[in-house]
TrEMBL record:
This is oxoglutarate dehydrogenase (succinyl-transferring). The lineage of its organism: Bacteria, Pseudomonadati, Pseudomonadota, Betaproteobacteria, Burkholderiales. The keyword Oxidoreductase applies. Keywords: Oxidoreductase, Thiamine pyrophosphate. It comes from the Bacteria. Gene3D superfamilies: 3.40.50.12470, 3.40.50.970, Multifunctional 2-oxoglutarate metabolism enzyme, C-terminal domain, TPP helical domain. One of its GO terms (cellular component) is oxoglutarate dehydrogenase complex. PANTHER family: 2-OXOADIPATE DEHYDROGENASE COMPLEX COMPONENT E1, 2-OXOGLUTARATE DEHYDROGENASE. It comes from Candidatus Symbiobacter mobilis CR. The gene is sucA.
Length: 985
């Protein structure tokens, strides 16, 4: 530390150290140590310190008064205590010079310090004493830190006046008694706040001002109160109507949490007033029907039709009514706001990253980088929010460059019971269900659901904070669940005490109506509203307020061009080749780097080789083929967004889409992205190295693609195996959204796959799982084996009028395999080939056995055939596994008229890979004289072995077996022949 001090010793110790930040906050122990050395030997400290210690005790205060004559050690100890509080975020600037020089053991100083400690305690843990439970099942806990006596304040001290001008947002001076009342009203009422863990002092002071300046008391006029009652009436009215009309049918009632509808209404209206134009909403099934009808404006008669099972069945499969999405436009003080409620499966919180991705796509579409126009709103249940890991993953995206949405507002319907938990000790491991948000420093407002005005206030603050600071914020509405988890459940079986309380609770609507009656707003107001709502229900009229029925949303996405497209229709293929001149131009721009850029030697070699590939001097490898696909798309005006762990460099160091200057000195400088510089006026190219997440990131990219049909959105797994972690996104969105909800999506997945001796978790992208999910023309599954094939399939994904998820099983060793490279002619005069015939089978009439395969094993088979000179064997690649290319395969099949043995060969174990799926497809082409067999690894519960020598033995055996005169002798690695007359296993 710099041991120099200012020359003015008249300043208090605290003031000096605040003025010189290098001495402040972290310096308490240093000051104490310096003073100890000064006492032992004044010459042991610097002269400036010695002089300052000598004169401090006698120095006048900065306000002109005389500083108290106190021992120096006490002054230093007092200062040390204060800076510790400052460092912990519990101390506020602005101490007077007198108090700064006053020791802890003097009565005025001690009382003043105690008052400040009391303020800090309430800001930090006052929420634990707040009255948040509408059922009032337990009394307030004993928290000594919130009692004045904990700090040595006795009853006689409560009338003592303390200076609060710079420590509490209220009067300049207050008695300890008045201060205590203000603190308890502010922090221990029906609204409790958690924000002191924020590291940004400005944000903490913002919350302190909001809470303390009005002591957390809402001020709502008569019209506002009537509106709250009307919304409570609507929320309760719908549930009671459905409960009597559709007895026992599942609807996941909101009863007990009706204030949530009030919160939704306030949030939408205030967001509109703050300039928000779009709100993307994600929520699970609790209260979803209520939101659809009373917030988004779905016609009750349409909901009733779904209950009556008379709704039109336009989808191949459909879904239950409490998973359905909806969109509408709502009038607000700031103009129309477009609401989109995302379709959501039963897997509760998995919709959250999908909504975040949708919000980011909408932000990008309208040029709104900070989210001032687009808001993500997520609604959670208390147990799911605390219990499901996708929430932690999604929160971790919040402030990262590629995934931020400018802050998300989280509303929690906290029914204090979760699903069926019968003991609070089993509900979670944290004090609050919201504790996970502390990891990203999101403030939390806990509010008693029986106090809808306080709910409104909490929502107002939450929205204002999000708009001011661009960060996540949570409103935890503590309520209860009147009925069971669903309407067929009997919760008293496991929660008898809780449901005795619930049975005695009149409901928030009645409580609030009675309160307004006392306030003189009408004794029959609540009953009149209830009758009016029931009449609307009986006639099926719209009950949501401010719905704009004829508004044209200006940023609507037109999916019409893609509705008729089928990816199994060969006629839907399009020209994906580019002219040679265009190729040369793009390649030249792609490989011309700024001369000021200092390259790593390995990267320099990559780009030198790419320049040669662009000129046609050497064949084009996988990385260059992929780059040219991206370059040609953005040059045509098609944006590209690529994300995943290590996507900029590429897990296998093949991509190098982002070049890092080796001489750079700052993180935000010295990077160059060639694909952002390939053409004048090109479309954006974005590549993102994601956090170490699969489920949330894949969900995000799915949500992004669902709102961006004109953008190539691609997610890359570091290893294809890691897609396992995101299986729920694949099952419940990627594979089934079209048949359940009629939602199209063009997301591309790049999944490295291949049996190469790297063990069970670095080998398989689980082709078999995707093939099991493949039906109804719902996705495209491809395994390209050449650089030109990846070029064409990526371009095809965007250039034809089809939007289906594309799953690409990409290679690892083939990224640099000489034979997987392609000549320029295959880029300038070709298409994606779903089936690649054997170009070396120049005499097809002599072929007796045809090996059918997909992926890397092709090259192993070609090498073995050359060694054996087995000209009677042809090797055919199936590059598209689904939709299965029957027409293309038939053309190849007919080319080998004398072949009697058709053998499927794969790297993967027999119970994995493509075999179980393709055997049925291949059997359709068998003729009477032909038979179909399998050659590959034996069945296994693990996708690959972990021992390199064992892998090599297995690989050698399956390759040898493909050429063996009698494959039946292979034993477990051969599953026998099938003929056209036999059913396929």
């Amino acid at each position: 530390m710099d041991e120099t001090l200012p020359e003015n010793p008249s300043q208090s110790l605290y003031q000096v150290l605040r003025a010189y930040s290098h001495l402040f906050a972290g310096s308490a122990s240093y000051i104490e140590d310096a003073y100890e050395r000064y006492l032992d030997d004044p010459d042991s400290v610097a002269a400036s310190w010695r002089e300052w210690f000598d004169t401090l005790a006698a120095a006048p205060a900065s306000d002109g008064g005389k500083a108290p004559d106190v021992p120096m050690r006490a002054a230093v100890e007092a200062f040390a205590a204060r800076v510790r509080y400052e460092r912990a975020g519990e101390w506020s600037p602005g101490w007077s010079s007198a108090s700064a020089a006053c020791p802890l053991d003097s009565t005025p100083g001690r009382k003043h310090t105690a008052a400040q400690q009391l303020i800090a305690a309430h800001r930090n843990i006052g929420v634990r004493w707040a009255s948040l439970d509408p059922l009032q099942r337990a009394g307030r806990p004993d928290i000594p830190e919130l009692d004045p006596s904990f700090y040595g304040l006795e009853d006689a001290d409560l009338d003592l006046e303390v200076d609060t001008s710079n420590t509490f947002f209220g009067p300049a001076t207050m008695s300890v008694h008045a201060l205590l009342d203000a603190l308890r009203t502010t922090y221990c009422g029906v609204l409790g706040a958690e924000f002191m863990y924020l590291t940004d002092q400005r944000q903490k002071r913002w919350w302190q001002h909001k809470l303390e300046s009005i002591q957390s008391q809402p001020a709502i006029n008569a019209d506002g109160k009537r509106h709250i009652l009307e919304r409570l009436t609507a929320a309760e009215g719908l549930e009671r109507f459905l409960h009597t009309k559709y007895v026992g049918q599942k609807r996941f009632s909101l009863e007990g949490g009706e204030s949530f509808i009030v919160a939704m209404d306030e949030l939408i209206q205030r967001a509109g007033a703050r300039g928000v134009e779009e709100i993307c909403i994600g929520m699970a099934h609790r209260g979803r029907l209520n939101v659809l009808v009373n917030t988004l404006g779905k016609l009750p008669k349409d909901l009733f039709a779904e209950f009556d099972h008379t709704a039109p069945e336009e989808l191949a499969a459909g879904d239950v009514k409490y998973h359905q999405g909806f969109s509408s436009d709502i009038e607000t003080p700031g103009g129309p706001v477009h609401l989109s409620l995302a379709f959501n499966p039963s897997h509760l919180e998995v919709v959250n990253p999908v909504v975040e991705g949708a919000a980011r796509a909408r932000m990008d579409r309208r040029g709104d980088p900070t989210g001032k126009k687009v808001l993500a709103l997520l609604v959670h249940g208390d147990a799911a929010f605390a219990g499901q890991g996708v929430n932690q993953e999604t929160l971790a995206l919040a402030q990262t460059r590629g995934y931020t949405t400018g802050g998300t507002v989280h509303l929690i319907i906290n029914n204090q019971i979760g699903f069926t938990t019968s003991d609070p000790r089993d509900l979670r491991s944290t004090v609050y269900c919201t504790d996970i948000v502390k990891a990203v420093e999101a403030p939390v407002m806990h509010v008693n659901g029986d106090h809808p005005e306080s709910v409104v206030l909490a929502v107002q603050w939450a929205l204002d904070y999000r708009m001011e600071f661009g960060k996540d914020v949570v409103v935890d509405i503590v309520c209860y669940r009147k009925l069971g988890h669903n309407e067929q459940d009997t919760p008293a079986l496991t929660q008898p005490l809780m449901y005795k309380k619930i049975a005695q609770h009149p409901g928030v609507r009645q409580l609030y109506a009675e309160r307004l009656a006392v306030e003189g707003l009408g004794n029959t107001l609540g009953d009149d509203m209830a009758r009016a709502y029931r009449a609307a229900m009986d006639t099926g009229k719209r009950t949501a307020v401010s719905v704009l029925g004829v508004h044209k949303y200006p940023f609507a996405i037109d999916w019409t061009p893609y509705l008729a497209g089928r990816s199994d229709d060969e006629g839907m293929d399009c020209r994906t080749a580019i002219p040679l001149e265009r190729w040369a131009s793009l390649a030249q721009r792609l490989t011309t780097l700024p001369p000021t850029l200092t390259l790593h030697p390995l990267v320099r070699k990559v780009y030198e080789d790419r320049a040669a590939m662009g000129r046609g001097d050497i064949p084009v490898d996988w990385g260059m083929g992929e780059h040219m696909a991206f370059a040609s798309l953005v040059a045509q005006g098609v944006p590209v967004r690529l994300s995943g762990e290590d996507s900029g460099r590429g897990t296998f160091s093949h991509r190098h889409a982002v070049i890092h200057d080796q001489n750079r000195e700052k993180w935000d400088e010295g990077t160059y992205v060639p694909l952002q510089n390939v053409a004048e006026g090109q479309a954006p190219f974005v590549v993102i190295d994601s956090i170490l997440s699969e489920e949330a990131v894949l969900g995000f990219e799915y949500g992004y693609a669902s709102n961006a049909p004109d953008i190539l959105v691609a997610w890359e797994a570091q290893f294809g195996d890691f897609v396992n972690v995101a299986q729920v996104v694949i099952d419940q969105f990627l594979a089934s959204a079209q048949v359940k909800w009629g939602r199209l999506n063009g997301l591309t997945l790049l999944l490295p796959h291949g049996q190469e001796g790297q063990g069970p978790e670095h080998s398989s992208a689980r082709i078999e799982r995707f093939m099991q999910l493949a039906a109804d023309d719902n996705m495209q599954l491809v395994q390209p084996t050449t650089a030109s094939q990846i070029f064409h399939v990526l371009r095809r994904q965007m250039l034809r009028k089809v939007r289906k998820p594309l799953v690409v099983f990409t290679p690892k060793s083939l990224l640099r395999h000489r034979d997987a490279a392609s000549p320029i002619a295959e880029f300038t005069d070709s298409v994606f080939r779903t089936v690649i015939d054997d170009a070396q089978a120049t005499e097809p009439d002599t072929v007796q056995r045809v090996l059918l395969c997909s992926g890397k094993v092709y090259y192993d088979l070609v090498k073995k055939r050359a060694a054996l000179e087995a000209r009677h064997v042809a090797i055919v690649r199936i590059e598209q596994l689904y939709p299965f290319p029957h027409a293309a395969l038939l053309r190849v099949w007919e080319r080998y008229p004398v072949a009697t043995e058709w053998l499927w060969v794969q790297d993967e174990p027999r119970n994995q890979g493509a075999w179980f799926f393709v055997q049925h497809c291949l059997a359709e082409h068998l003729l009477a004289r032909q038979r179909l067999g399998y050659c590959g690894r034996a069945p296994s519960s693990s996708p690959a072995v972990g021992y390199a020598h064992l892998h090599q033995e297995q690989q050698r055996a399956l390759v040898d077996g493909a050429f063996a005169p009698d494959p039946a002798g292979l034993g477990a690695s051969f599953c026998g022949w099938r003929t056209h007359a036999q059913p396929v296993a």
